[in-house]
TrEMBL record:
Origin: domain of life: Bacteria
MF annotations from Gene Ontology: DNA-binding transcription factor activity; kinase activity
Protein task: Transcriptional repressor of xylose-utilizing enzymes.
Transmembrane segments: none
Keywords in alphabetical order: Carbohydrate metabolism, Kinase, Transferase, Xylose metabolism
HTH marR-type domain ranges (all copies): 20-60
UniProt name for this protein: ROK family protein (Putative glucokinase)
Signal sequence segment: none
The family this protein is said to belong to: Belongs to the ROK (NagC/XylR) family.
BP-aspect Gene Ontology terms: D-xylose metabolic process
Amino acid sequence: MSTHYTRGSFQLMKSMNRSIILNMIREHGPISRADIAKQSRLTPPTVSNIVKELIQTQFVIETTQGQSKGGRKPTLLEINADHFYIIGVDVGTFHMNFVVTNLYGELKDVAKKDIPSYPSKEDILDTMKSGIREFFTSGKCDPEKFLGIGIGMHGIVDPIEGVSRFAPSFQLYDIPIKAELENEFDMIVKVENDAKAMTLGEYWFGNGNDADNMVGVNVGNGIGAGMMIKGQLFHGENNIAGEIGHITIDLSGPKCTCGNYGCLQTLAAGPAIAERARKELKTGKPSMIRDLVDHDFEKVDGKLVYEAACEGDEFSIELLNQTGRFLGIGLTNLIHTLNPKRIIIGGGVSKAGDFLMDGIKETIHSRGLTSKAKETHIVLSKLEEHASAIGACVLILEEFFSR
Ligand SMILES: [Zn+2]
């Protein structure tokens, strides 16, 4: 497949004025040429020339959906959103979630692939490659239209080198994702931690759009956070920033995979919920879960606890509420460290939203330092299960629309 055209697209955007105009159309479109000139303070002929070029290269299209004040409708400009596609991949513990979006982050195709147990680096790369390749051959999206590939990977990621430094669920180090995929597909590839990707996705297309200081918390098999400070993801010195699953909540709590005791994720991640449920069921507490698993407590998982809570099972409701209170303690620490405007909760466990939310809010309210801290806006992810994969697409959009 030829991707020279899309590589050229990035080159083209390097002009500052072009980028200003393209972003204005993205953020404020449909918009007229006159309004672009007014807001950008570029001269009307400059705007006209650049717009002509953007239309020729099919980044922008004309529409006539503007309001007319009598006479003919004004011609407005908008992003030619479906002329380019981006592939996003969210690499979890057990499977990879693949999406294709257009330039507005709208889903065009989705797929899922299982990750082999105890995978090697090659297994991870092969699973990625085969999932991506299927989008090129499925016939649903024109292969010529793909602009780039974004990867959201759990664990410690070096986004500059595009390397997964440590993937705890696989116990793998230094997977050269960017180099391998760029070589395979001859297009731009960006790699980021999954929680950071999720946060970016919510910032662009989800519940974060007006909060330049915000945190996205991904609660699944582990717990990670993406911290957005003044509109930029914060990585810290060695890309470890946001590993909030390992902040200590209870010194005498359960042992964590990291070797410490009472880490947040030993109390509030998916496996921890299942583990607590098993332990308490063994003490004889009444719950409908007993019958659901036919008294085989090994079958208990987070999803089952949630389903029982939805059926009104008091045991499960209280368990999720308690999980919310643990999360609330972790989030209170974050509030006191970063003072974000908003915290967005995503990941598999966030499906139990309402059951968690009461515990989270109640804890933050009782522990927050000031009334402003107590009132920190806590919301669930808007992009839900695709948040990290859509966020991975935003890694490419950020590049494309960079100023
Ligand atoms: Zn830990």
